[in-house]
Amino acid sequence: MTWVAGVIGTALTATAVTAVGSRLEEVVTKATETGPPVSVDQVMEFRSDMYGDSVAFARGASFTDADLAELNQIDQDFGGMDSVEWLESRGGVAPDIVLIQLALSGNRTGSVRITNLEVHPDCSAPLDGLWFEDPPAGADDSIRMHFDLDDSNPVAKVASMDGSPTGEPEDYFPARTISLKQGEQQVIIVSASTEEKYCSFFLDMTVLEGDETSTHRITMPAGSPFEVTASLPLDQYEEVYLGGVVCYPWVKAGNAFFNGDWEHQCS
């Protein structure tokens, strides 16, 4: 019996040492891991040919003849900032739908899981100041998740590959989640649309790490919110500028345009 007790004691001691060692390794690993469980490697707004490159500004925005000359110069500087980037850097907002590309990667030794992506919009009346008309002229980029900001409770929906969802789209979460191993990267295309208002918003990402859940806010690189505004009939804007497939170079719309005389407007 003494021998049996010794064997059992040795086994229990070995098990305890293994358990303590495993726990110690877990504690050391967690202590040496830094940053959030999911790394946000890139956040980038982009445009789709399906929706065009038009841009809207709030009422009261200033745009001078010198600004117009600078905008036209930018359009001629191929390889540099394009007109959309320049206009949005001055406060311009995408109309109807904003497209966001997220590059996310796992930042833990074990795998982590994204279990939700939420949006909490702050909305008001659509922007009706300046309008820069550059309509669509081609095919679309793929979209994976979509938020309808006109919904009272917008949630991530499964989106089609050629635009925002139609019919009765499924919720993306919780039926689907995104698992990331350490260093594994996943690119997610998120869209948000409105036909009724102007909205600014952030994206809140919920991550499951082991049995712990945490929430992490995703913003534009400078920390500012994403923005989108409903478009209005062109005669409701303070000023309208025509570019892209309508006119080249950009020109300020006058009576000829609103009377349907496009040819003389752009000459």
TrEMBL record:
This is Uncharacterized protein. It comes from Geodermatophilus siccatus.
